[in-house]
Fold each of these.
Amino acid sequence: MKRMLILLLIAFLAMGTVFATGSKEVAKEDGPVTLRLSWWGGDSRHTPTLAAMDAYMAKNPNVKLEGEYGGWDGYYQKLVTQIAGGTAADIIQIDQPWLAELSSKGDVFTVIDDSMVDLSQFDAAFLKNYCSYDGKLMGLPTGTNVNTFVVDTKMLADFGIDPNTKWTWENIISEGKKINEQDPSSYFSGATPDNLRAWLEIYIAQLAGAVVDDNKQVAFTEAQGTEAFTYFKRWFDEGIIAPFRQTSLFYQKFQENPDWINGKMAAARIFVSSMEKDFAGRPNFETRQFPVMDGAVNTGILMRPSQIFVVNNNSKNKDEAIKLLAYLFTDAEAIEKLGLARGIPSTAIGRSVLAEKGMISEMVEKATNEGIAQAGDPQSVYQMNSEVIQVMQDVIDEFGFGRLTPEEASAKLIKNLEATLASL
Amino acid sequence: MLKRSYKNYTYIGYLYILPWIIGFLLLQLVPLVNSLWYSFTQFQLLGDPKFLGLANYKKIFTADATFLQSLKVTFYYVLIAVPLKIGFALLVAIILNQKIKGINLFRTLYYIPSILGGSVAISVLWKYLFMNQGVVNNIIGVIGIPAIDWLGSPELALGTISLVTVWQFGSSMLLFLAGLKQIPVSLYEAARIDGAGRMRIFFQITIPALSPIVLFNLIMQMINAFQDFTGAFVITQGGPLKSTYLYGLMLYDQGFKFFKMGYASALSWILFAIILFFTSLTFRSSESWVHYGDSI
């Protein structure tokens, strides 16, 4: 009896290892094909994507498409787990920084070339700088996403600030402080701790070119770091930005801060792709140019694909998956159905179809064009690494809570960055 | 013949629990053994684990400042949340043990927070109650108290988050309530005849009689508190200044934000050792304060 039981237990363990290696089905030629697509987003993205998928299925009856979609929270964690377990979708929407992070760990994505998709539709530099790893094209950019600086023109005017001010680092303080001076509960900037990190990255990029360069080295000096922190200390001292005590709860969600929603903050640095969500029903926003210091090495303004679509290298139907990608990116019907669900399309045909139909909103177009004009060099993969970002954030938190002077913050940032970069 | 049917009988017994055995082996034992192995490796989820020996453990104990910070926060959290929760559960159980009209309704209502559990929704609710512009500050504002940064100040955030746990006292309370019902009325009557006051009765009869349940609640709640994650993750994300960076959150960050599964596995085995230590310590100490059945 006991022996029977032991045998049984061993049998189940053995079954477990069989499951773990994954059962590999062989796809039949020309037979019915099922493709899974995964993406994150809201309803404004889900509905058009599902519509485009339906249209594709109507044209290709042998293909069945299944969408796996939800919100942003936890998407990356789920994706990596699925990739590790061999259960990720055939076509996957990823965020640009993940491309390098995941590709560095193995051949996770299928290499795409001109024979599969008409790549002339895309800006070649954009593909090379943002969608390639090790010189190979790994995915296609859905749209162009840029940083933009938005101001509430009515709120500025109400506090006696010219809404058409051309912003410099200096007049953000000299003009911006008028708001908090008149109303201690209102501020010029809506920045939360993570936004301040982005501002610091911009400032250091203008001073020194980058925070972390392509050679995995800290790119700024301690003096430059001190200069940057000294500048942002004035943001706190002069009431440009709300104390972290009030904003840290809205880490990565500044648009949920009631003070932002209720119009007590006038300006923000945001990505165009989330512009409508960030405006939170406030009607008077306009986009402006970012401040750029004289002799800036790099504007530090980010431009990157809104998202990237990749084909899972583990997919059993890679050819069909790439065919679908080509349809979504270059077919007029698909472009129209998808609209602005992923920002202004990065293909020439995409932009012309939507422009013809009058589907590109003026503000999004203006913000995108201005952003492209002001965009700086792409950030290095090391600067976008999640551990590096955490190191920067931890120092900025300590600085923002007044636990570090600008000098201490700069020294600590460099020391911690060096330690982390060495371990990557 | 008899022997044979007996054999069949046990065989069938194992068949009945087979689903559990399969589940245990595949979903618990395999991951458990795997994670022990991973804790000695560098494993980034994608690709194969690389054997490192004790390097992960060495780094945790010698070169990881966040580990110490997170351990400190977690101990504070356990020290605040567990006694408060058990004390509160006992208090409510005693109140709900009174013979009042409609007491069953109250019992149900007070149990509801625990049915909702440590869910994300409750944590979001907590965030909106305690944020600067939240309900709590509005209420204290009415009586003239200035707004307090419940969740924004590094000094208060952990305490505020602990309240979520304390609020979910229902299951402990239910056990206390059942325990209270078990205490023989004759004990109370005898004490009263001997002239014991209410406090004396509470400390000399009620508490000793409930002590096995206190022990059970203490151990269960302690284990839960050491592993807690949801509140800190949803409400403060470990901030401000890592003041709510619970051990579970650090584990999650290492595993699922930085994808250092080997390191995260090592962290979880350390947590296991810590929990084991404190659980056995509690068991040891129980000999001197837990009274079973006839030993009161």
Note: The interface with chain A takes residues 7, 10-11, 14, 21-22, 25-26, 30, 44-47, 127, 131-133, 149, 151-154, 235-237, 239-242, 253, 256-259 of chain B (CB under 8 Å).
Amino acid sequence: MSDFRVQHASWSSRIGTTIVVLAFVAFAAAPWWADRANLRLLSEIFAYVALASLWNLLAGYAGLVSVGQQAYVGLGAYVLFGLAMLAGVHPLAAIPLAGIAAAIVALPVAALIFRLRGHYFAIGTWVVAEVFRLLAAQTTALDGGSGTSLPAAVVVSIASSRQMREFTIYWIALAQVAVVLFAIVWLLRSRYGLALTAIRDNELGARSNGVDVARIKYCVYVAVAFGTAMVGALIFLQKIRISPDTAFSVNDWTAFVIFITVIGGIGRIEGPIIGTVIFFLLRQTLADLGAIYLLILGVVAIAVMLKAPKGLWGLIADRYGWQVFPLERRLVINKR
Amino acid sequence: MEWLNTILQGILLGGLYAMFAAGLSLIFGVMRLVNIAHGDLIVLAAYVALVATQTLGINPIVSLIVVVPVMAAIGYVLQRGLLNRTLGDDLLPPLLVTFGLSVIIQNGLLEIFTADSVKLNAGAVEIQSIAVGGGLALGVLPLIQFALAIAVIGGLQWLFYRTALGRAFRATSDDQSVAQLMGLNNAHVFGLAMALSLAIVAVAGVLLAVRANFDPSMGPARLIFGFEAVIIGGLGSMWGTLAGGIIIGVAQAIGAQIDPGWNLLAGHIAFLIVLAIRPQGLFPKVHG
């Protein structure tokens, strides 16, 4: 029986993984070669890669198209602010706690909105985000609708010097995106990844082959909420200021994330990375246009969805068969 | 007495929400498409009415003569030119394309009309009311709004079950390929369904614009109210959407009476409660 094995890596994934690892080493050393503005930009890029990768896992693989992930970005951020300001928890320790809190909240939320089929699930996720936003606006302990700022004492507790604080937050942002990408690669290589890929390609087929589709979707939803909340917590720890409208912004945390993933390539782990690079290149050149910029982004995303539904990376992968991460499954006969 | 008044106002507001819901429900019924841009199209209709009243110098209610055909035409073109290409077994394309459309409409309106909120002035009718005894009075405008909602839903019901077009809608809803075999042009039928949906959106948009201030960012909330009314009423039931709209309207009115901050929250909570205890809605008809 054991005269064959499954091989994940290919020549392109060896090159790709090497480049990714080298990039991470270079980014880890960024505090020594980049200035403050670029460090900030890089941590923002990392946050979007992480958010888009998580949304991609949810929508691209598990088929759960959510337009309400801002619910968990905002929830994570608010839990961090609440713990740090009201309970005196160290802000860095509050980041994982924000993730755990979001996962606990996601358990009953998922049970409720999973009752909505297909398309209506999407709008259901939006209702949840609205409810969270309105509840945050009613939280008088954190100054309700007008929002609040982290007190200086909390900010100083991250690190005493401003430079060290910026470095710390930058490294955590880098670590977050590394962990998210690594976890997704690991998940997709496991038997659950096989099930998820099967769901992505054909849900009915997956079910008839014995995949417990409902349970896997439930687990993915909760896990994505966990990750999204931690990313959200760090984003607002860096911003220092929070308000319901920024923390639960559908444009910032869902529209951008969806456009990034669709343009880069939905249902492929490389998609969100490519998409984020394109998104920030566009933003650096078109940011002055204001509302027009979002409009252009919407048009591009619709055009990609209609003309190249697998996104930019989908085109590349179909044409050349490349993969950056060792994910494919190829049977190799063992030589005796 | 104050509570009775609150509930009455909520019921009348529910008529407006039922109209948001009717267009959404129609589209889903005929082609299984959930239009995420629905709320933004309502706001677009309000701005079309704004331009119509300003350039033609007519009353907003009269402007319906212009706004309804304009929105219906937009609907037909949108469906034939864009949305028909997204239909199929895959859920992603219609959701993402209508989501993109929502962002485009919102930011387009923002660019043209700025974020300042505006309101349409319908004249004396806005402040008139009819005393119904016991110290209660009902505004003429909310009553018109409610009557229009009933007329729209009754008209849809009649259209669906008494006309050839309704038969075509029901046929494509039941089985698209058989409908096509029977000589229906599905692409055209879908275009007509979207045109009809946006004609209803036009009425809802004008009423929204007369009722209160509006700005480009308020579309998504309208989508959500309409969606909640559809789910509470039960998929595919037209009169159910009216009941759903009324429940949302009354819940919001009661919430606002308790604490202004609970206005919208109370409506969402009513929806979540129905979802928890009766996920198929109050009057379910089709299984989506």
Note: The radius of gyration of chain A is 20 Å.
